[in-house]
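> example.struct
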């Protein structure tokens, strides 16, 4: 019974985590990520490195429209679904970031 409870808990926790991200509305074309047909990010950099003996591939996207800044986690998850073996970063334009 304990094993069934643990497995059920793990499965439910996994489902809750996955539902946290909403990738509907996202698409991609060329080097661009779109949200509801608006261009929101552009692939700006690709890096390869050796980190702790592990080969790492990383894509960096530049956020083009701060109106979509609140969707960054969903966008990262969307990109990760397409390129699951890559690390994904989103660069915010510094001129649009406020410390206040």
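> example.seq
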């Amino acid at each position: 019974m304990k094993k069934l409870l643990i497995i059920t808990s793990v499965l439910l926790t996994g489902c809750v985590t996955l539902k946290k991200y909403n990738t509907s509305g996202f698409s991609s074309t060329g080097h661009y990520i779109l949200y509801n047909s608006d261009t929101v990010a552009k692939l700006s950099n690709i890096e390869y490195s050796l980190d702790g003996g592990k080969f790492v591939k990383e894509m960096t996207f530049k956020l083009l429209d701060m109106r979509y800044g609140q969707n960054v986690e969903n966008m990262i998850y969307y990109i990760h679904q397409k390129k699951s073996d890559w690390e994904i970063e989103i660069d915010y334009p510094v001129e649009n970031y406020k410390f206040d």
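> remarks
Strands lie at 26-29, 32-35, 38-51, 54-63, 87-91.
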